[in-house]
TrEMBL record:
Gene: alc
Family of the protein in this entry: Belongs to the allantoicase family.
InterPro entries: Allantoicase, Allantoicase_dom, Galactose-bd-like_sf
Stated name of the protein: Probable allantoicase
EC numbers: 3.5.3.4
Length: 383
């Protein structure tokens, strides 16, 4: 996967996905929380504080003793990391000359002290980086992580830290009714007619939009056509309720919208795909949350949202439940991607003795035929 490819994937560390910088050993000049702001870093030549120049990033003091500095980020959505970007924008004489990235996988919400005792695996070796530059690094490790640690040598400033990858949610929380399109559950945009003003991926972000720029807005159409977005759902499921939200779009909201679904397990729906109508063409109001009942409960893997003729939307919510087979597949994939120590921990929590858990893990991948006892599988399915 190239740099261009991996940066198209969601930033799993972003504050927009509820990521958090849970600890930094030093942040004397600039706060660690700046690392995961979704917007680009900004700079003002006049902005000075009591401690010196104020930077929109994370900056540590000058070291006068051996060592290095680091910050620990809890991913907003755990997943497989395909690449990271260590962005040193505006840091020219004070950037770190080297950096590395480590990752770990943990249950629940561990404290910084507990994370210090965790097993950390290197996913980006200590490497030279440049100042005032987006420094991209591909990651080949196929495992699922919950936390990453950015280490800089010996000190300095980093503006933004991006962790691009594919979400792998905990399937123990995918039972019942969920938002099948949500980015945090593994939903993704696979096609869009127009991204002139903003990305359609923002339709799938958690929470309410805060401003108009926090949604998807296309250019004004002059050709008699209409704009559209295709979403791959977290997994195959049945849609029970739809929300199309035009909040903050007042003079530029979409005028009408419709929603169709396709069952294209294992592939993207092509030109000849069969689409089932879920929500017929419906008039929308500006700055309004629209709640709609689908006219079909047929299982689908993809959705196509059409807006007429153009215009902005803040959020798309598609509430429903995974099919039993899709939920089972999500559990097996999750267990396959967990690092060994975390996998032993979750299997032990399901009542599997540690020595038996080690034996089970030698049978991975479960998704490709490795045998997982039905009683163990049932413990993760919540059934």
């Amino acid at each position: 996967m190239t740099t261009k490819d991996f940066t198209r994937l969601p930033d799993l560390a972003s504050r927009s996905l509820a990521g958090s910088v849970v600890y930094a050993n030093n942040e004397l000049f600039a706060e660690r929380e700046n690392l995961i702001k979704p917007e680009p870093s900004v700079f003002s030549a006049e902005d000075f504080g009591h401690k010196g120049k104020v930077y929109d990033g994370w900056e540590t003091r000058r070291r006068r003793e051996p060592g290095h500095d680091y910050a620990i980020v809890r991913l907003g959505v755990p997943g497989v990391v395909h690449g990271v970007v260590i962005d040193t924008a505006w840091f020219k004489g004070n950037y770190p000359p080297y950096a590395s990235v480590e990752a770990t996988s943990a249950e629940g919400a561990p404290s910084p002290a507990e994370l210090e005792q965790a097993t950390w695996e290197t996913i980006v070796e200590k490497t030279a980086i440049k100042g005032d530059t987006e420094n991209p690094f591909e990651v080949a490790d196929p495992r699922r992580w919950t936390h990453v640690r950015l280490t800089i040598y010996p000190d300095g400033g980093v503006a933004r830290f991006r962790v691009h990858g594919r979400p792998v949610p905990d399937p123990r929380f995918l039972d019942g009714t969920i938002d099948l399109a949500a980015l945090e559950h593994g939903g993704d945009v696979v096609d869009c007619s127009d991204t002139f003003y903003s990305s359609p991926v923002q339709l799938l972000l958690p929470g309410r939009a805060r401003i108009m720029g926090d949604g998807w807005e296309n250019a004004r159409r002059r050709d008699g056509g209409n704009d559209h977005v295709t979403v791959r759902l977290a997994a195959r499921g049945r849609v029970r309720r739809v929300e199309i939200d035009t909040s903050y779009f007042i003079g530029n909201a979409a005028g009408w919208a419709s929603l169709r679904g396709a069952d294209a397990e294992g592939s993207e729906p092509g030109e000849g795909a069969e689409w089932t109508e879920l929500v017929p063409k419906t008039r929308l109001q500006p700055d309004t949350r629209h709640f709609l009942r689908p006219v079909s409960a047929a299982p689908v893997t993809h959705l196509r949202l059409d807006v007429f003729p153009d215009g902005g939307l803040a959020r798309l919510r598609v509430h429903g439940e995974l099919t039993a087979d899709a939920h089972r597949a999500a559990v097996l994939r999750w267990l396959d991607l967990l690092p060994a120590d975390h996998a032993v921990q979750v299997l032990s929590g399901a009542g599997v003795p540690p020595e038996t858990a080690d034996d089970l893990l030698r049978r991975r991948p479960f998704a490709a035929g490795g045998v997982l006892p039905p009683t163990v599988l049932a413990a993760f399915l919540g059934r």
